[in-house]
Protein backbone atom coordinates (compact mmCIF):
# COMPACT_ATOMS: atom_id res chain seq x y z
CA UNK A 1 0.00 0.00 0.00
CA UNK A 2 1.42 3.41 -0.98
CA UNK A 3 1.92 6.19 1.57
CA UNK A 4 -0.75 8.32 -0.14
CA UNK A 5 -3.29 5.45 0.04
CA UNK A 6 -2.43 4.89 3.71
CA UNK A 7 -3.01 8.58 4.39
CA UNK A 8 -6.35 8.48 2.57
CA UNK A 9 -7.40 5.34 4.52
CA UNK A 10 -6.34 6.89 7.82
CA UNK A 11 -8.28 10.05 6.96
CA UNK A 12 -11.40 8.00 6.09
CA UNK A 13 -11.17 6.01 9.32
CA UNK A 14 -10.79 9.20 11.33
CA UNK A 15 -13.84 10.61 9.59
CA UNK A 16 -15.84 7.46 10.37
CA UNK A 17 -14.77 7.66 14.01
CA UNK A 18 -15.85 11.27 14.17
CA UNK A 19 -19.24 10.36 12.69
CA UNK A 20 -19.62 7.49 15.15
CA UNK A 21 -18.83 9.86 18.00
CA UNK A 22 -21.44 12.33 16.76
CA UNK A 23 -24.48 10.89 18.58
CA UNK A 24 -22.51 10.71 21.84
CA UNK A 25 -21.79 14.40 21.61
CA UNK A 26 -25.51 15.06 21.02
CA UNK A 27 -26.61 12.71 23.80
CA UNK A 28 -29.40 14.04 26.05
CA UNK A 29 -28.69 13.48 29.74
CA UNK A 30 -31.57 13.01 32.21
CA UNK A 31 -31.41 12.85 35.99
CA UNK A 32 -34.10 10.48 37.29
CA UNK A 33 -34.90 10.54 41.01
CA UNK A 34 -36.49 7.37 42.36
CA UNK A 35 -37.69 6.98 45.99
CA UNK A 36 -35.82 4.02 47.42
CA UNK A 37 -32.50 3.42 49.16
CA UNK A 38 -29.70 2.01 47.00
CA UNK A 39 -29.69 -1.76 46.54
CA UNK A 40 -32.31 -4.47 46.69
CA UNK A 41 -34.56 -6.13 44.13
CA UNK A 42 -36.63 -3.05 43.23
CA UNK A 43 -33.56 -1.07 42.15
CA UNK A 44 -32.51 -3.99 39.96
CA UNK A 45 -35.93 -3.92 38.28
CA UNK A 46 -35.70 -0.14 37.73
CA UNK A 47 -32.12 -0.47 36.43
CA UNK A 48 -33.22 -3.14 33.95
CA UNK A 49 -36.11 -1.01 32.67
CA UNK A 50 -33.83 2.03 32.34
CA UNK A 51 -31.26 -0.06 30.44
CA UNK A 52 -33.96 -1.27 28.03
CA UNK A 53 -35.10 2.32 27.48
CA UNK A 54 -31.54 3.47 26.77
CA UNK A 55 -31.07 0.57 24.33
CA UNK A 56 -34.22 1.63 22.45
CA UNK A 57 -33.23 5.32 22.65
CA UNK A 58 -29.42 5.48 22.19
CA UNK A 59 -29.44 9.28 22.14
CA UNK A 60 -30.74 9.49 25.74
CA UNK A 61 -28.76 8.66 28.88
CA UNK A 62 -30.54 8.23 32.23
CA UNK A 63 -28.73 8.83 35.51
CA UNK A 64 -30.81 7.10 38.22
CA UNK A 65 -30.61 8.64 41.70
CA UNK A 66 -32.00 6.41 44.44
CA UNK A 67 -32.99 9.02 46.97
CA UNK A 68 -34.38 7.16 50.01
CA UNK A 69 -38.00 7.32 51.15
CA UNK A 70 -40.70 9.34 49.41
CA UNK A 71 -40.24 11.99 52.11
CA UNK A 72 -36.45 12.02 51.60
CA UNK A 73 -36.90 12.28 47.84
CA UNK A 74 -39.27 15.26 47.85
CA UNK A 75 -37.04 17.03 50.40
CA UNK A 76 -33.93 16.46 48.26
CA UNK A 77 -35.68 17.63 45.13
CA UNK A 78 -37.04 20.82 46.73
CA UNK A 79 -33.53 21.56 48.04
CA UNK A 80 -32.03 20.88 44.60
CA UNK A 81 -34.59 23.19 42.99
CA UNK A 82 -33.52 26.06 45.22
CA UNK A 83 -29.89 25.32 44.38
CA UNK A 84 -30.57 25.30 40.64
CA UNK A 85 -29.85 21.57 40.27
CA UNK A 86 -33.27 20.10 39.52
CA UNK A 87 -33.78 16.58 38.20
CA UNK A 88 -35.54 16.30 34.85
CA UNK A 89 -37.90 13.50 35.88
CA UNK A 90 -38.82 11.84 39.18
CA UNK A 91 -41.18 9.42 40.85
CA UNK A 92 -42.86 11.17 43.77
CA UNK A 93 -46.09 10.58 45.64
CA UNK A 94 -49.21 11.41 43.67
CA UNK A 95 -50.13 13.50 46.73
CA UNK A 96 -47.08 15.72 46.19
CA UNK A 97 -48.88 17.26 43.20
CA UNK A 98 -50.09 20.45 44.93
CA UNK A 99 -46.68 20.99 46.56
CA UNK A 100 -44.95 20.71 43.18
CA UNK A 101 -47.48 23.09 41.60
CA UNK A 102 -47.03 25.62 44.42
CA UNK A 103 -43.23 25.44 44.01
CA UNK A 104 -43.63 25.99 40.24
CA UNK A 105 -41.42 22.92 39.89
CA UNK A 106 -43.14 20.78 37.26
CA UNK A 107 -44.48 21.25 33.77
CA UNK A 108 -48.00 19.99 33.00
CA UNK A 109 -48.01 17.14 30.50
CA UNK A 110 -50.59 19.08 28.48
CA UNK A 111 -47.70 21.28 27.30
CA UNK A 112 -45.70 18.23 26.18
CA UNK A 113 -48.47 16.19 24.52
CA UNK A 114 -51.06 18.53 23.07
CA UNK A 115 -54.56 18.25 21.70
CA UNK A 116 -56.30 14.98 20.96
CA UNK A 117 -53.09 12.97 21.30
CA UNK A 118 -52.70 14.15 24.89
CA UNK A 119 -56.36 13.59 25.75
CA UNK A 120 -56.19 10.06 24.35
CA UNK A 121 -53.03 9.28 26.35
CA UNK A 122 -54.42 10.67 29.63
CA UNK A 123 -57.67 8.73 29.10
CA UNK A 124 -55.72 5.48 28.68
CA UNK A 125 -55.01 5.30 32.45
CA UNK A 126 -57.47 4.16 35.11
CA UNK A 127 -59.64 7.17 36.10
CA UNK A 128 -59.12 6.41 39.80
CA UNK A 129 -55.40 7.08 39.41
CA UNK A 130 -55.95 10.32 37.50
CA UNK A 131 -57.82 11.86 40.46
CA UNK A 132 -54.45 12.49 42.13
CA UNK A 133 -52.77 13.40 38.84
CA UNK A 134 -54.91 16.26 37.55
CA UNK A 135 -55.80 19.68 38.95
CA UNK A 136 -56.91 23.05 37.57
CA UNK A 137 -57.79 21.43 34.25
CA UNK A 138 -54.25 20.14 33.69
CA UNK A 139 -52.39 16.84 34.05
CA UNK A 140 -49.35 17.16 36.31
CA UNK A 141 -48.41 13.54 37.00
CA UNK A 142 -48.59 10.26 35.10
CA UNK A 143 -49.41 7.15 37.19
CA UNK A 144 -46.49 4.74 37.61
CA UNK A 145 -46.29 2.74 40.84
CA UNK A 146 -49.84 3.00 42.06
CA UNK A 147 -51.68 1.02 44.66
CA UNK A 148 -54.71 0.63 46.88
CA UNK A 149 -55.03 -0.75 50.41
CA UNK A 150 -56.04 -4.42 50.46
CA UNK A 151 -56.62 -7.04 53.15
CA UNK A 152 -54.35 -10.09 53.34
CA UNK A 153 -55.36 -13.15 55.36
CA UNK A 154 -53.66 -16.37 56.45
CA UNK A 155 -55.85 -19.24 55.25
CA UNK A 156 -54.27 -21.72 57.67
CA UNK A 157 -55.08 -19.45 60.61
CA UNK A 158 -58.68 -19.13 59.40
CA UNK A 159 -59.05 -22.89 59.21
CA UNK A 160 -57.57 -23.34 62.72
CA UNK A 161 -60.05 -20.77 64.08
CA UNK A 162 -63.04 -22.55 62.51
CA UNK A 163 -63.46 -19.91 59.78
CA UNK A 164 -63.90 -20.62 56.09
CA UNK A 165 -60.36 -20.12 54.71
CA UNK A 166 -61.74 -18.96 51.36
CA UNK A 167 -64.00 -16.23 52.77
CA UNK A 168 -62.48 -12.97 54.07
CA UNK A 169 -64.52 -10.55 56.19
CA UNK A 170 -67.02 -8.53 54.18
CA UNK A 171 -67.94 -5.88 56.78
CA UNK A 172 -66.50 -4.05 59.79
CA UNK A 173 -68.49 -6.27 62.13
CA UNK A 174 -67.28 -9.42 60.41
CA UNK A 175 -63.67 -8.21 60.56
CA UNK A 176 -64.03 -7.57 64.31
CA UNK A 177 -65.70 -10.97 64.88
CA UNK A 178 -63.12 -12.81 62.74
CA UNK A 179 -60.27 -11.02 64.54
CA UNK A 180 -61.66 -12.13 67.92
CA UNK A 181 -61.59 -15.77 66.80
CA UNK A 182 -58.12 -15.39 65.28
CA UNK A 183 -56.43 -13.75 68.28
CA UNK A 184 -54.39 -16.33 70.23
CA UNK A 185 -53.05 -16.06 73.78
CA UNK A 186 -50.68 -18.27 75.73
CA UNK A 187 -51.28 -19.66 79.25
CA UNK A 188 -50.14 -16.34 80.77
CA UNK A 189 -52.56 -14.35 78.65
CA UNK A 190 -49.88 -12.92 76.35
CA UNK A 191 -50.92 -12.55 72.73
CA UNK A 192 -49.07 -14.89 70.36
CA UNK A 193 -51.16 -14.03 67.30
CA UNK A 194 -53.20 -10.90 66.69
CA UNK A 195 -56.40 -11.07 64.72
CA UNK A 196 -55.70 -7.94 62.68
CA UNK A 197 -52.95 -5.37 62.19
CA UNK A 198 -53.51 -2.01 60.48
CA UNK A 199 -50.24 -0.04 60.27
CA UNK A 200 -50.32 3.21 62.24
CA UNK A 201 -46.64 4.15 62.60
CA UNK A 202 -44.41 6.08 60.22
CA UNK A 203 -45.66 8.41 57.50
CA UNK A 204 -48.83 6.69 56.31
CA UNK A 205 -51.40 6.29 59.15
CA UNK A 206 -53.68 8.73 57.32
CA UNK A 207 -53.65 6.47 54.23
CA UNK A 208 -54.74 3.32 56.06
CA UNK A 209 -57.27 5.39 58.00
CA UNK A 210 -58.67 6.69 54.74
CA UNK A 211 -59.69 3.11 53.99
CA UNK A 212 -61.96 3.27 57.04
CA UNK A 213 -63.29 6.77 56.34
CA UNK A 214 -64.08 5.91 52.71
CA UNK A 215 -65.96 2.81 53.85
CA UNK A 216 -67.96 5.07 56.15
CA UNK A 217 -68.72 7.29 53.14
CA UNK A 218 -66.60 10.24 54.30
CA UNK A 219 -64.36 12.23 51.93
CA UNK A 220 -61.49 13.98 53.72
CA UNK A 221 -60.72 16.90 51.38
CA UNK A 222 -62.09 18.95 48.51
CA UNK A 223 -60.84 18.53 44.95
CA UNK A 224 -58.87 21.79 45.01
CA UNK A 225 -56.86 20.71 48.05
CA UNK A 226 -57.84 23.82 50.00
CA UNK A 227 -60.18 22.38 52.67
CA UNK A 228 -60.33 19.24 54.80
CA UNK A 229 -63.15 17.49 56.68
CA UNK A 230 -61.35 15.71 59.52
CA UNK A 231 -63.89 16.26 62.32
CA UNK A 232 -67.10 15.07 60.65
CA UNK A 233 -69.13 12.47 62.63
CA UNK A 234 -68.45 9.70 60.09
CA UNK A 235 -64.68 10.32 60.42
CA UNK A 236 -64.89 10.24 64.22
CA UNK A 237 -66.85 6.96 64.03
CA UNK A 238 -64.17 5.45 61.76
CA UNK A 239 -61.37 6.42 64.16
CA UNK A 240 -63.34 5.08 67.13
CA UNK A 241 -63.64 1.71 65.36
CA UNK A 242 -59.87 1.62 64.74
CA UNK A 243 -59.07 2.59 68.33
CA UNK A 244 -61.52 0.01 69.69
CA UNK A 245 -59.83 -2.85 67.82
CA UNK A 246 -56.80 -2.38 70.07
CA UNK A 247 -58.12 -0.88 73.31
CA UNK A 248 -61.60 -2.35 73.70
CA UNK A 249 -61.77 -5.51 71.59
CA UNK A 250 -58.08 -6.33 72.15
CA UNK A 251 -57.77 -8.04 68.76
CA UNK A 252 -55.03 -5.67 67.52
CA UNK A 253 -51.97 -4.11 69.19
CA UNK A 254 -53.00 -1.15 71.36
CA UNK A 255 -49.84 0.83 70.53
CA UNK A 256 -48.56 1.88 67.13
CA UNK A 257 -48.13 -0.78 64.45
CA UNK A 258 -45.14 0.03 62.25
CA UNK A 259 -45.61 0.05 58.48
CA UNK A 260 -42.43 -1.88 57.73
CA UNK A 261 -42.90 -4.63 60.32
CA UNK A 262 -46.51 -5.50 59.50
CA UNK A 263 -45.67 -7.86 56.59
CA UNK A 264 -42.98 -9.48 58.78
CA UNK A 265 -45.58 -10.06 61.50
CA UNK A 266 -47.81 -11.66 58.87
CA UNK A 267 -45.04 -13.96 57.60
CA UNK A 268 -44.14 -14.99 61.16
CA UNK A 269 -47.81 -15.65 62.07
CA UNK A 270 -47.93 -12.85 64.64
CA UNK A 271 -51.03 -11.54 62.89
CA UNK A 272 -53.63 -13.50 60.93
CA UNK A 273 -54.90 -10.52 58.90
CA UNK A 274 -53.30 -7.28 57.84
CA UNK A 275 -54.12 -4.18 55.85
CA UNK A 276 -51.32 -2.95 53.63
CA UNK A 277 -50.57 -1.83 50.10
CA UNK A 278 -51.03 -4.04 47.08
CA UNK A 279 -47.41 -2.98 46.46
CA UNK A 280 -46.53 -5.66 49.05
CA UNK A 281 -48.16 -8.40 46.98
CA UNK A 282 -44.97 -9.80 45.45
CA UNK A 283 -43.26 -9.60 48.83
CA UNK A 284 -46.09 -11.63 50.41
CA UNK A 285 -46.16 -14.10 47.52
CA UNK A 286 -42.40 -14.72 47.88
CA UNK A 287 -42.21 -14.85 51.69
CA UNK A 288 -45.44 -16.24 53.12
CA UNK A 289 -44.88 -19.94 53.85
CA UNK A 290 -48.59 -20.64 54.06
CA UNK A 291 -51.60 -20.20 51.76
CA UNK A 292 -52.90 -16.65 51.87
CA UNK A 293 -55.70 -14.63 50.39
CA UNK A 294 -56.03 -11.04 49.18
CA UNK A 295 -59.36 -9.21 49.35
CA UNK A 296 -60.99 -5.85 48.96
CA UNK A 297 -61.33 -3.99 52.24
CA UNK A 298 -64.48 -4.80 54.24
CA UNK A 299 -67.43 -2.42 53.92
CA UNK A 300 -69.35 -0.27 56.38
CA UNK A 301 -71.69 2.02 54.46
CA UNK A 302 -69.88 1.11 51.21
CA UNK A 303 -66.74 -0.52 49.84
CA UNK A 304 -63.80 1.81 49.60
CA UNK A 305 -60.09 2.50 49.63
CA UNK A 306 -57.82 5.40 48.76
CA UNK A 307 -55.50 5.03 45.83
CA UNK A 308 -51.84 5.51 46.67
CA UNK A 309 -48.32 5.40 45.35
CA UNK A 310 -46.19 7.42 42.99
CA UNK A 311 -46.50 9.39 39.77
CA UNK A 312 -43.87 10.41 37.22
CA UNK A 313 -43.29 14.17 37.05
CA UNK A 314 -41.31 16.23 34.52
CA UNK A 315 -39.51 19.29 35.89
CA UNK A 316 -39.52 22.80 34.46
CA UNK A 317 -35.82 23.51 34.98
CA UNK A 318 -34.74 21.48 31.97
CA UNK A 319 -34.11 22.19 28.31
CA UNK A 320 -36.67 21.54 25.59
CA UNK A 321 -34.56 18.54 24.51
CA UNK A 322 -34.53 17.18 28.05
CA UNK A 323 -38.29 17.63 28.40
CA UNK A 324 -38.86 15.79 25.12
CA UNK A 325 -36.54 12.99 26.27
CA UNK A 326 -38.24 12.88 29.68
CA UNK A 327 -41.61 12.51 27.97
CA UNK A 328 -40.27 9.59 25.93
CA UNK A 329 -39.00 8.00 29.14
CA UNK A 330 -42.35 8.46 30.94
CA UNK A 331 -44.26 7.04 27.98
CA UNK A 332 -41.92 4.04 27.89
CA UNK A 333 -42.14 3.35 31.65
CA UNK A 334 -45.97 3.52 31.60
CA UNK A 335 -46.54 1.72 28.30
CA UNK A 336 -48.77 -1.36 28.60
CA UNK A 337 -45.85 -3.79 28.28
CA UNK A 338 -43.67 -2.04 30.87
CA UNK A 339 -46.61 -1.42 33.23
CA UNK A 340 -47.38 -5.14 33.08
CA UNK A 341 -43.72 -5.99 33.70
CA UNK A 342 -43.57 -3.61 36.69
CA UNK A 343 -46.82 -4.95 38.16
CA UNK A 344 -45.70 -8.59 37.97
CA UNK A 345 -42.30 -7.77 39.48
CA UNK A 346 -43.53 -5.59 42.37
CA UNK A 347 -47.23 -6.08 43.05
CA UNK A 348 -48.18 -2.50 42.19
CA UNK A 349 -51.28 -2.21 40.01
CA UNK A 350 -50.63 -1.94 36.28
CA UNK A 351 -51.84 1.59 35.59
CA UNK A 352 -53.91 1.05 32.43
CA UNK A 353 -56.57 -1.39 31.22
CA UNK A 354 -54.34 -2.04 28.18
CA UNK A 355 -51.60 -3.40 30.47
CA UNK A 356 -54.01 -6.05 31.76
CA UNK A 357 -54.68 -7.05 28.15
CA UNK A 358 -51.02 -7.87 27.44
CA UNK A 359 -50.45 -11.63 27.07
CA UNK A 360 -47.89 -11.66 29.89
CA UNK A 361 -50.16 -10.04 32.50
CA UNK A 362 -53.24 -11.95 31.37
CA UNK A 363 -51.37 -15.21 31.93
CA UNK A 364 -49.99 -13.98 35.27
CA UNK A 365 -53.45 -13.04 36.60
CA UNK A 366 -54.84 -16.40 35.47
CA UNK A 367 -52.15 -18.20 37.45
CA UNK A 368 -52.15 -15.74 40.38
CA UNK A 369 -55.68 -14.26 40.79
CA UNK A 370 -54.75 -12.02 43.79
CA UNK A 371 -53.01 -9.77 41.26
CA UNK A 372 -56.45 -8.65 40.04
CA UNK A 373 -57.96 -7.76 43.44
CA UNK A 374 -56.63 -4.20 43.70
CA UNK A 375 -57.55 -3.52 40.07
CA UNK A 376 -61.10 -4.73 40.71
CA UNK A 377 -61.29 -2.47 43.78
CA UNK A 378 -60.53 0.66 41.71
CA UNK A 379 -64.18 1.47 40.86
CA UNK A 380 -64.83 2.12 44.57
CA UNK A 381 -61.52 3.91 45.20
CA UNK A 382 -61.16 7.61 46.00
CA UNK A 383 -58.28 10.06 45.71
CA UNK A 384 -55.64 9.83 48.41
CA UNK A 385 -55.61 12.74 50.89
CA UNK A 386 -53.79 15.59 49.14
CA UNK A 387 -53.82 19.31 49.88
CA UNK A 388 -51.69 22.36 49.47
CA UNK A 389 -48.81 22.29 51.97
CA UNK A 390 -49.53 18.58 52.05
CA UNK A 391 -46.55 17.51 54.17
CA UNK A 392 -47.61 19.76 57.05
CA UNK A 393 -51.30 18.88 56.81
CA UNK A 394 -50.70 15.12 56.75
CA UNK A 395 -48.23 15.39 59.64
CA UNK A 396 -50.85 17.17 61.76
CA UNK A 397 -53.40 14.52 60.82
CA UNK A 398 -50.99 11.62 61.49
CA UNK A 399 -49.93 13.03 64.85
CA UNK A 400 -53.52 13.27 66.02
CA UNK A 401 -54.48 9.84 64.68
CA UNK A 402 -51.54 8.36 66.59
CA UNK A 403 -52.53 10.24 69.75
CA UNK A 404 -55.97 8.60 69.59
CA UNK A 405 -54.50 5.15 68.90
CA UNK A 406 -52.11 5.55 71.84
CA UNK A 407 -54.99 6.64 74.08
CA UNK A 408 -53.67 10.14 74.88
CA UNK A 409 -56.67 11.80 73.15
CA UNK A 410 -60.21 10.69 72.43
CA UNK A 411 -60.96 10.22 68.71
CA UNK A 412 -63.30 13.23 68.78
CA UNK A 413 -60.69 15.51 70.41
CA UNK A 414 -57.89 14.29 68.15
CA UNK A 415 -59.88 15.01 65.02
CA UNK A 416 -61.10 18.38 66.33
CA UNK A 417 -57.48 19.37 66.96
CA UNK A 418 -56.39 18.11 63.53
CA UNK A 419 -59.18 20.08 61.85
CA UNK A 420 -58.29 23.33 63.63
CA UNK A 421 -54.59 23.10 62.77
CA UNK A 422 -55.24 22.09 59.15
CA UNK A 423 -57.67 25.00 58.76
CA UNK A 424 -54.93 27.32 59.99
CA UNK A 425 -52.38 25.92 57.52
CA UNK A 426 -54.77 26.01 54.56
CA UNK A 427 -56.22 29.46 55.22
CA UNK A 428 -53.65 31.03 52.87
CA UNK A 429 -54.92 28.91 49.96
CA UNK A 430 -58.65 29.58 50.35
UniProtKB/TrEMBL annotation:
Annotated keywords: Periplasm, Signal
UniProt lineage: Bacteria, Pseudomonadati, Pseudomonadota, Alphaproteobacteria, Hyphomicrobiales
The protein, known as: Carbohydrate ABC transporter substrate-binding protein, CUT1 family (TC 3.A.1.1.-)
Keyword Signal: yes
Domain of life per record: Bacteria
Signal peptide stretch: 1-26
Database matches in CDD domains: PBP2_UgpB
Subcellular location, principal: periplasm
Record-stated family: Belongs to the bacterial solute-binding protein 1 family.
SUPFAM superfamilies listed in its UniProt record: Periplasmic binding protein-like II
GO cellular component, one term: periplasmic space
One Pfam entry name: SBP_bac_8
Location(s), subcellular: Periplasm
PANTHER family given in the database record: ABC TRANSPORTER SUBSTRATE-BINDING PROTEIN, ARABINOSE-BINDING PROTEIN-RELATED
Amino acid sequence: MTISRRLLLASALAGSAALAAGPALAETQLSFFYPIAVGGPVTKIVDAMVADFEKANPGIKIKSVYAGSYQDTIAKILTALKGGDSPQVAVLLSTDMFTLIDEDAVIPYDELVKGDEGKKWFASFYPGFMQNSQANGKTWGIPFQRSTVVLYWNKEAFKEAGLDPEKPPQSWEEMRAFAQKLTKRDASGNVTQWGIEIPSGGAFPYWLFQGLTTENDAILMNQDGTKVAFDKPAVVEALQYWVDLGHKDKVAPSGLVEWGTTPKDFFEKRTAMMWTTTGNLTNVRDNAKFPFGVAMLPAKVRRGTPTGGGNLYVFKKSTAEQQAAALKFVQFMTSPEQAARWSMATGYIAVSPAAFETPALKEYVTKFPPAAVARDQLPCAVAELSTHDNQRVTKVFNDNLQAALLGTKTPAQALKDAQAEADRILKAYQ
